[in-house]
Design brief:
With 556 residues, this protein is mainly alpha-helical. The chain is 70% helix and 2% strand. The chain has 2 domains: 386 residues, Amino acid/polyamine transporter I (Up-down Bundle), CATH 1.20.1740.10; 55 residues, no CATH class.
């Protein structure tokens, strides 16, 4: 067992130290710049869309208007944007918020919290791009929409093999590794609070999720929309109460986090790298920004424009890390408990017990049950969506559901380090695969964002028209009405070619240089021309010709 643990630690440290942290933060910065800081500029729009769910007119998608409830149009059961949001949030809000934060603080010090904040602020741009693309390339099933990264890899990039690789990684990561972490954390919390044997709890955890998941995405959405908001409100109420009770300690806690984050505090000397790695690693496990998980839930929603769901999912990152994770961190750091004396959920339990007394242990055990159990349900659905991508066989889906139950049982009995080690490795590989895809498709997400903003400025509720993207219109099955749906072309849905994309990038660079003041001066253009070139111009009207150029990378 020690050998397995050592191997998992070795590979995890290699992937995170030398590869993933640099690529993840670089991509987060890049998408923040490409979208012109969408996560900050459109924060008000995110909140508005969440509080006032999208209403899709009958002429757009169905006979019934879509509100906060699931509507039925013939065989189609439309899932609202809010329901898709809470399905994704059910996966996000779990052990990462309670046990993951504690692990990050225990191993990396209080400064790890700061780097979790940084990842959330920048990573929400990743969440926006991946969820917008998932909406764009969603597919129409018999009873609901479906999609995710595997589908935009296949139909957007024309790389079906890449979609299969991603689907396998998604199944292993969420269906098996992450669910092992969830069950392991529940068992640790209940053993500490109530003395419940791990095997008994593991058997119970293996059976209960099957009752829900055999009902499909609609039962998952219904369960998540009922449970997640309620448990989040209860936990936040207790956490805010603890912070208010210890409000005098808040300035010193914040100062400790900042000093420790940059190695200023002598206690953190020599472990700055560990602090950053733990903060980003546990932050990614918690909010899943760029990981490719939330797009599976985002694709299910019925909205009038892909950007709407992209904005809502970006808000989910803020909700998860800046709110829930921060509350947990404040509880631990304000309590004064020794952060090295325990690890995982037991550290959080010790901290809360020191604040509210003997009720802390059972309260946290019940909370972690709700958080982690909802994550098991959400994680299961992500795996199911990718099982359906690989195979349409009912038997493969049945085998997957039973395997999930088995891994939940196994996770309850392995050690904490083994459970986290498996999750860290598969999470790293999954994220790298997804980041490569959204980098190559980023120009499409940027185009959709500009289309959305133009319609908003014109005073309209944005509605996406697939005809504005004629080059890939045949790949956008989810946006075609059933009676007008066109069969996929014989190329298997390759969409925009990679060669065309890079040719367009080169044309774009030449166009920008020739239109610049420096380029005009080189060609001897008059001063009046230079002045006109430097003046701002109105946003161009979107036409089929302009989209055809942008889809090849010419317009950004």
């Amino acid at each position: 067992m020690n050998t397995i643990q050592d191997l998992l630690t070795l590979w995890s440290d290699f992937l995170w130290t030398y590869i993933l942290i640099a690529i993840l933060t670089g991509c987060a910065l890049y998408f923040t710049w490409r979208t012109r800081f969408v996560q900050f500029r459109l924060m008000g729009e995110m909140i508005r869309l969440l509080l006032r769910p999208d209403k899709v007119k009958a002429t757009q998608i169905g006979r019934e208007e879509l509100g906060g409830e699931m509507k039925v149009d013939g065989k189609m059961k439309h899932v609202s944007s809010f329901q898709a949001f809470v399905v994704a949030l059910a996966s996000r809000i779990g052990t990462g918020n309670l046990a993951g934060v504690a692990t990050a603080i225990s191993l990396g010090g209080p400064g790890a919290v700061f780097w979790m904040w940084v990842l959330a602020l920048l990573g929400s741009a990743l969440a926006f791009v991946e969820s917008t693309l998932a909406q764009l390339y969603k597919r129409r099933g018999e009873t609901s929409f479906y999609g995710g990264p595997a589908y935009y890899m296949k139909y957007g990039l024309g790389k079906g093999w890449m979609g299969i690789v991603f689907a396998i990684l998604m199944i292993v990561t969420f269906g098996f590794a992450y669910n092992s972490v969830q069950s392991n954390t529940i068992c640790a919390a209940w053993e500490k609070a109530f003395g419940v044997d791990a095997a008994t709890m593991g058997l119970l955890l293996a059976g209960l999720p099957l009752v829900i998941i055999f009902g499909g995405i609609h039962r998952v959405a219904k369960f998540s929309s009922a449970v997640v908001p309620a448990m989040a409100v209860v936990y936040l109420a207790v956490a805010v109460g603890v912070v208010i009770w210890n409000i005098s300690l808040l300035p010193s806690v914040l100062m400790t986090i900042i000093k420790n984050a940059f190695g200023i505090d002598q206690a953190a000397g020599g472990v700055l790298g560990v602090t950053i790695m733990q903060g980003i690693k546990r932050g990614l496990f918690s909010n899943e920004a760029g990981e490719g998980s939330a797009p599976n839930a985002a694709a299910v929603a019925t909205v009038s424009h892909p950007v709407k769901q992209g904005l809502i999912q970006a808000l989910g990152v803020f909700t998860d890390t800046l709110v829930v994770c921060t509350c947990t961190a404040f509880i631990i750091l304000m309590s004064g408990v020794d952060i090295t004396a325990a690890n995982g959920i037991q550290l959080t339990q010790d901290a809360l017990t020191s604040e509210i007394g003997s009720l802390g242990n059972p309260f946290m055990a019940i909370m972690i049950w709700c958080f982690a159990f909802s994550s098991i349900i959400g994680n299961y659905y992500y795996g199911e969506a990718n099982i359906r991508y690989i195979s349409k066989s009912r038997w493969s889906l049945l085998a997957y559901r039973l395997a999930v139950g088995g891994m939940v049982m196994l996770g309850a009995m392995v050690t904490l380090d083994i459970a986290w080690g498996m999750a860290d490795i598969t999470m790293a590989l999954l994220t790298l695969c997804n980041l490569a895809a959204i980098l190559m498709l980023s120009h499409q997400a940027v185009f959709l964002l500009e289309d959305y903003r133009r319609q908003k400025k014109a005073g309209r509720d944005p509605v996406f028209d697939p005809n504005t993207m004629p080059v890939i219109a045949k790949q956008l099955e989810g946006w075609q009405s059933p009676e007008n749906h066109q069969a996929l072309p014989a190329d298997g849905g390759k969409g925009i070619s990679e060669a065309g994309f890079w040719r367009g990038k080169r044309r774009f660079s030449r166009t920008i240089w020739r239109g610049s003041i420096r380029g005009r001066m080189r060609r001897g253009r008059p001063a009046s021309s230079l002045l006109r070139a430097s003046m701002p111009r109105a946003a161009p009207r979107v036409t089929s010709a302009r989209w055809q150029a942008s889809s090849a990378g010419t317009i950004h």
